[in-house]
From TrEMBL:
It comes from Spongiibacter pelagi. InterPro entries: SpoIIAA-like (IPR021866), SpoIIAA-like_sf (IPR038396), STAS_dom_sf (IPR036513). Transmembrane segments: none annotated. It comes from the Bacteria. This is STAS/SEC14 domain-containing protein. Pfam families: SpoIIAA-like.
Length: 128
């Protein structure tokens, strides 16, 4: 299940992963993504992985196609998980998102992860 987290920042999409992720979960996340991003805007993501039972290969390829347009809009991803999940995720995400800054945080660093994910937004605010 992919739970969209209620995050007030207009430039940040947050999700929590628990168990298997299906196509409807991805569509829900995409709806949240589209509600926050304009045509040329950039977004950051906050992802908490509690457990992940994966996709079938067919579903994984379908989800990659579904998200391929959105990859270019991501500037940074804060990944909150145990270290083993980070290693697996970084390998996959690093290949698909070479221009996106990916940072790992442990579960007790959730607050720091949210702050880090919003740093681009905070830097823009300071410039004003």
């Amino acid at each position: 299940m992919l739970e969209v987290l209620p995050i007030a920042s207009p430039d940040l999409v947050g999700v929590r992963v628990k168990g298997p992720v299906d196509h409807q979960d991805m569509l829900n996340m995409l709806d949240e993504f589209h509600s926050k991003v304009g045509k040329d805007e950039k977004l950051a993501m906050y992802i908490e992985i509690e457990s992940f039972d994966g996709f079938s290969l067919r579903n994984f390829l379908r989800e990659l196609r579904l998200m391929s347009e959105e990859y270019t809009r991501l500037t940074r991803i804060a990944l909150v998980s145990e270290l083993a999940w980070y290693r697996r995720s970084a390998m996959i995400l690093g290949r698909r998102l070479p221009n996106t800054n990916l940072e790992h945080f442990t579960p007790i660093q959730r607050d720091e992860a949210l702050i880090w994910a919003c740093e681009d937004e905070l830097e823009e605010y300071e410039e004003i």
